Amino acid sequence: MTILLFGITKDIVGSSTLSVPVAKSAKLNTVGELKSYLGSTFPELNRLSSLAVAVNNSYATDDFAINSYDEIALIPPVSGG
User: CA angle at residue 17 from 53 to 32, to 5 degrees?
Assistant: First the structure.
């Protein structure tokens, strides 16, 4: 499973993409499970005021089902001015 990272999430992880090993991604069935895994792997993600997840170009809720073939992106809070 490959996850696209933007903004501060890219800085936290240190890359614009993150590959989740196949053995681990097979156990991640929902967006919520993915967020929990990422939060335990990269604790700084838990400090973000919000973290949206897009699956196949659409925002997804924590109970949304995912699989290793989906295009997943982490979208951090955006500030403007």
Answer: 30
